Amino acid sequence: MEFNKLKIIKGEYWDVFLHQDQTALGRLYFWYKKEAEDLLDIPKNALIEFYNIGRNIKFALENLFQPDMFNYLSLNNFTKHLHIHLIPRYSKEINYFGLTFKDISFGKSYKRNQKFIVNQEILIKIKEKIKGEL
After folding, report:
1. What is the pLDDT of residues 87-134, one digit of tens each?
2. Per-residue DSSP letters for 78-99?
3. What is the pTM of this model?
4. 3-state helix, strand, coil in the chain (%, to 5)
5. Which is nearest to 115 in space by CA: 130, 100, 129, 126?
């Protein structure tokens, strides 16, 4: 799938995309638009934008899906470019768009359920639902 189809927000420093892995409903990531690998190497204005966009996204996810908590990851293990994952975590199954979303590792480090694949149509619906809540 073309990543731009899953873009939720276009900022000055950050773009926000719905992640294709929806084991945890609403998982997304912030992509820094300039060259950087480390969060603490970017200018203060970029950090402020991350904070402002992040708060808006967090409140939207809370209103839509009522997660129990959030995890934030900046691993750069495969992609040597600054990006930060926001992963809502759920203690209970969630039924949405005719699917059952189950956070199989709630209370532990996040683990993707590789057998759970959300099709493009549903991904677009989730993205549009989040965008509509912002």
Report:
1. 999 999 999 999 999 999 998 888 888 889 999 999 999 999 999 999
2. S--S-EEEEEEE-SS-EEETTE
3. 0.92
4. 30, 25, 45
5. 100
